[in-house]
Amino acid sequence: MNRRAMMISGAALITVAIATATTACTDTEARIATTSGALPASSLGAADFSPAAPTGPNRIGTQSLHLIDESRPDPWVANEKRELMVSLWYPTRAGEGEYPSAPWLPKAAADSYMEHAGVEPGKVAFGNTRGLVGAPVDRSLGDLPVVLYSPGANASRAYGTGVVQELASRGYLVVAIDHTYDAMVVEFPGNRVVTNPEGEITDFGKAVSVRTDDARFVLDQLESLEAGHNPDVDSAPLPAGLAGALDLTRVGMMGHSLGAAATASAMYADGRIKAGMGLDGGGVGPVVEAGLDRPFLVVDTEGKGGRATNPLLQKFWSNLRGWRLNLTLKGAAHNSFGDDAQLIPIALPFAGVSSEDIQEMVGTIPTDRALAFQQAYPLAFFDQQLRGIGHLLDGPSPDFPEVAYTR
Distance between CA atoms of 78 and 83, rounded to whole angstroms? Predict the structure, then answer.
């Protein structure tokens, strides 16, 4: 089995053991490299993938921004300034059909991902999101609280689309960040595709530091945008009503895997981030010992790498001085916390990965229950910490019997 097939999931090679910042590879990888029992990819037909539809009352607008940090050389490659793509997701009153729907991944990026994964062209068709490109911001909702999203190692910002859309449909402005040369593929304007020159991230300490600086730079650009400036380096038109719509006194951040570690480190470095949520990831760097004095929600699984078996995650937890909660999603695995929960079972059979190994990646939890968690709990956390509403985090809920609470 070609190990590139694992790379379709941005975090499939990265377990919660990133908290040790020492290894990217688990015994899962070795088993998949010699797996048997997979259906021949040639025997399969074709499949479609679209991210989960949001459940909130608002339609969603989206806009990508091309950003360059002129003050920072790129840490991964020589002779370049740090260059990022981000996507804004926000509520809109625009009707379906008034603006084009954004693809889950732009075509050039999608083709590159499938090639890296060992999936033949045309086997998996990516559908559109619910985001209407360039639609005006719904200003009737008042100033919008802001959430930054950082994906797992090697992953595109697209891998959190289901979670991001849900928050936007509930009245948040969410900024999904592509961490260039960390993400396997980033597509810039003009169909320019940038890949990771090393193939995958292995230096997690460096990656978390770079992501922390990325998040702080993005916050700076949001402040500029809020003041009426256009931070897009190509001067792409901004959605009507965007400037002046952000409440930058209410900023949260969340991430999956390496993105969870980046969330903790960004909070430690920047007090503008008021609350953080880590989806099956730990801490890397000074924040492990220093802790945080602001709310942090740790989400893990019962498997290897959860807080019960990860000493550094335990230390990070013990040093959290603000509001804290540890949620364990029973039956979940590392890739149950984003679009991977849907995508991996659809796409990886085309790369020859067995059903047993797919289950090891996404767990035994039914897909609809994994998606229900994704839609309910990030919203509940940011509602509680940024809006002061909601009670789902008060204690175990009969609506979510698979979720265990530890304080």
Answer: 13
Alpha-carbon distances, residue 84 vs 134, 149, 177, 353, 366 (angstroms): 19, 14, 8, 32, 35
Q: Is there a contact between 185 and 116 (Cβ–Cβ < 8 Å)?
A: yes
Q: Could you read off the pLDDT of 130-166 as tens digits, one per residue?
A: 999 999 999 999 999 999 999 999 999 999 999 999 9
Summary count for the chain: helices (H), strands (E): 10, 15
Question: Would you state the pLDDT for residue 111?
Answer: 85
pLDDT at position 25: 31
What's the rounded Cα separation, in Å, for the pair 171 and 156? 24
Place of tokens 């979510």: 400
End-to-end Cα spacing for the chain: 42
Side chain identity, residue 310: N
Provide the 10 A C-beta neighbour count for residue 248.
16
What are the structure tokens assigned to 84, written together?
């990022």
Cα–Cα distance list, 385 to 33, 55, 143, 175, 381 (Å): 43, 21, 16, 18, 6
CA 86 – CA 97 distance, rounded (Å)? 24
Distance CA 200, CA 25 (A): 11
Nearest to 161 by CA among 297, 300, 340: 340
CB 52 within 8 A of CB 342: yes
Tens digit of pLDDT for each residue in 164-211? 999 999 999 999 999 999 998 999 999 899 998 887 888 999 999 999
| 384, 376 contact by CB (below 8 A) | no
Nearest to 254, CA basis, from 374, 144, 370: 374
State CA 399 to chain mean position distance: 25
**Other Cβ atoms within 10 Å of 279 Cβ, number:** 32
Q: Report the C-alpha dihedral over residues 18, 338, 279, 155, rounded to 10 degrees.
A: 30
Q: Under DSSP, is residue 246 helix (H, G, I), strand (E, B) or coil?
A: strand
Per-residue pLDDT for 33 more than 80? Answer: no
Q: What is the pTM of this model?
A: 0.91
Phi, psi of 276 (to 5 degrees): -135, 150
| Rounded-to-10 torsion of CA 276, 281, 287, 290 | 90
Burial class (CB in 10 A: 0-12, 13-18, 19+), 35: middle
**Residue 267 near residue 253 (C-beta atoms within 8 A):** yes
